[in-house]
């Protein structure tokens, strides 16, 4: 599979791409307190695909949100690509989400009135890339996820699996160094979900990025380089 590189990626770091150190997160207080994360520590190397597994309520989404800067831990720190995410101000977080981290969620989050190509091109428009560069990048990405013949279709004209492929292509638009995916196959049937998970493995390799993906599916675990198990907010042995 050919690597696409119309948008320059940042220089690779020789250190861990993700470093989580003693992270805890509690919601509420007193008897109503929910300890979503409890002293979680791990690292992810550049280019590694890590599966994050655990029962519902184990803290997976909270952990991903802390890594991606969508939430802040109460204790500990998170470092992504050399940036201490847990201490970034709003402008730093905007830059992180624009230049370093991209997200794929269960809900596809596509703009209904835009075509597949237009949805994928949104991040490139925000970066004010010239139209020819933007259009070539969009074409390459839609080909990469197997939707080169669906560029003009809107989300409502596509299956769930196709919509998730568009969402993946959009997440790759700015050549992120870290892809965070939270149960990306949660709304898909088994066969479609397996195809999307295999695609995620392929595009992570093709784009040369690091990824952390929460999942319940054994196939995604088998496709990953390493599996992290969460239970009651703590990392545990499998």
From TrEMBL:
The question of whether Nucleotide-binding is a record keyword is answered with: yes
Query: CDD domains, from UniProt?
Result: ABC_MJ0796_LolCDE_FtsE
Give the top-rank taxon of the lineage listed in the UniProt record for this protein: Bacteria
The GO terms describing molecular function are: ATP binding
**What residues does the ABC transporter domain cover?**
18-238
Keyword match GTP-binding: no
Write down the Pfam families for this protein, in alphabetical order.
ABC_tran
Which of UniProt's keywords are assigned here? Answer: ATP-binding, Nucleotide-binding, Transport
Instruction: State the name under which the record lists this protein.
Output: ABC transporter ATP-binding protein
Q: Which organism is it from?
A: Cellulomonas alba
